[in-house]
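Model: You mentioned two targets. I'll fold them one after the other.
Researcher: Yes, keep them separate.
Model: Target one:
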Amino acid sequence: MSPRPAPDLDSRRDQVLRAARAVAESDGWSAVTMRRLAGELGVTQPVLYSAFAGRQALIDAVALRGFGDLAAALEAVDAAPLPRMRAYLDFAAAHPRVYEAMFSMPLGLPFAADDTPEPLRQAFSALHDAFPDADGTRAEVVWSALHGLATLDAGGRLRPAHTQARLDLAHRLLTEQETS
């Protein structure tokens, strides 16, 4: 009998991340437990802990991948302000639990610091490209406004029929300085 081959850790991590995202999207983050994921994947909990130190490390990894996905979504459209704003809101609406992990749950990821992970930098950079200034303050304000719109919309606190009107108004307000 030959020994079992060593598992590919990157492949295992990817499998666990995909399962965590799927469970979160279907049943919310409270349903994402190492026990449930082990059952979903047909492995033991120690197998999961070989890929992630714990639930928080897993959530951080989901959020980090989410930032990479957000950066890709932003970079896939024209660098003009309105397409980037629309892509941001579309991403948040299409991936509500990933977005929640990125912005609403406690994370062990540093933001706006020297050691900010590259996917976070890329996502911010994609907004900064659409709203350039010397120090990134405009992009921070844009990100804040978009996050507010995305969060309020996800919570059902905004009128659905006015989504485009809100986006158009935010675009005008956030680009007003450029035309003045």
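Model: Target two:
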Amino acid sequence: MEVSLSEQIENTAGYPDVVCFSEPVTIEGVLKNTGKQMVLNAVCCTEAKILCSRCLAEVNVPIRFQIEETFYPAGYTEQEKEKEAETFSDDRIDVSGIIKRGILAGLPMKVVCREQCKGLCSKCGKNLNEGPCSCDHTEFDPRLESLRSLFNVDEEV
């Protein structure tokens, strides 16, 4: 039996760093009844908006993964089915857990809007992609700070 599903995910609470899903989750595949179990082979696609790790701009990230899952009737014992296999009851198969795991596995660990992204200023928070900020970025080595106190900072040496 061919399977074609599409559903929009509204609640992003269980998906770290995801602002929203800009496209619905679509599943296209085949569900086979082998007599003892149901086997689902499908492709799942969606697109998530995730904040850039450097400048916090929203980035559209496509997510695509393969589903190859076996479902057993709810009455099967552990010896009769494979380890950690999914179950179904009546005429309903719940694929939400499989989809959530697939999306989480497909999320990148770090998202950047572009490779040359300059990020945010660590002092004032300005987006450095829009131009430089007016902060003083002079840094002193903390190990030499005690020597610095010997000199008058306002004097030229």
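Researcher: Noted. Anything on target two?
Model: Strands lie at 2-7, 18-33, 38-51, 58-73, 86-88.
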